[in-house]
Automatic annotation (TrEMBL):
Protein family (similarity comment): Belongs to the bacterial ribosomal protein bL21 family.
GO cellular component, one term: ribosome
UniProt protein name: Large ribosomal subunit protein bL21
Gene this chain is encoded by: rplU
Keywords, in A-Z order: Ribonucleoprotein, Ribosomal protein, RNA-binding, rRNA-binding
Recorded superkingdom: Bacteria
GO aspect biological process, one term: translation
Function as written in the Swiss-Prot or TrEMBL entry: This protein binds to 23S rRNA in the presence of protein L20.
InterPro entries: bL21-like, bL21-like_sf, Ribosomal_bL21, Ribosomal_bL21_CS
A GO molecular function held by the record: rRNA binding
Upper taxonomic lineage: Bacteria, Bacillati, Actinomycetota, Actinomycetes, Micrococcales
């Protein structure tokens, strides 16, 4: 059984026991989070209608907070001496899916 859930601005395919990395979610390590299901596949049966998905709950546990890979941003304009360097690391949360009901 697996589900497609909305998590951190994206859709992720999850099943019980999977570890998913999403944008930062407030909470501490060990807290339980409920994810919004978009699609549920249970063997041959596929549920995608709103009424069927109201009954489905996907729960996950916060494992830890992370930072993403550093990206560098470089701006340069020719003949003017303008150079600018910046960096960015996205704040992330690592979740472990505990149940799909």
């Amino acid at each position: 059984m697996y589900a497609i859930v909305k998590a951190g601005g994206r859709q992720e395919k999850v099943s019980v026991g999977d570890i998913v990395v999403v944008d930062r979610i407030s909470g501490t390590s060990g807290d339980s989070v409920e994810l919004e299901p978009v699609l549920l596949v249970d063997g041959d049966k596929v549920t995608s209608d709103a009424k069927g998905l109201e009954k489905v709950t996907v729960t996950a546990e916060i494992v830890r907070d992370d930072k993403g890979k550093k990206i560098s941003i470089v701006k340069y304009k020719n003949k003017t001496g303008y150079r600018k360097r910046m960096g960015h690391r996205q704040k992330l949360t690592r979740l472990k899916v505990t149940g799909i009901k």
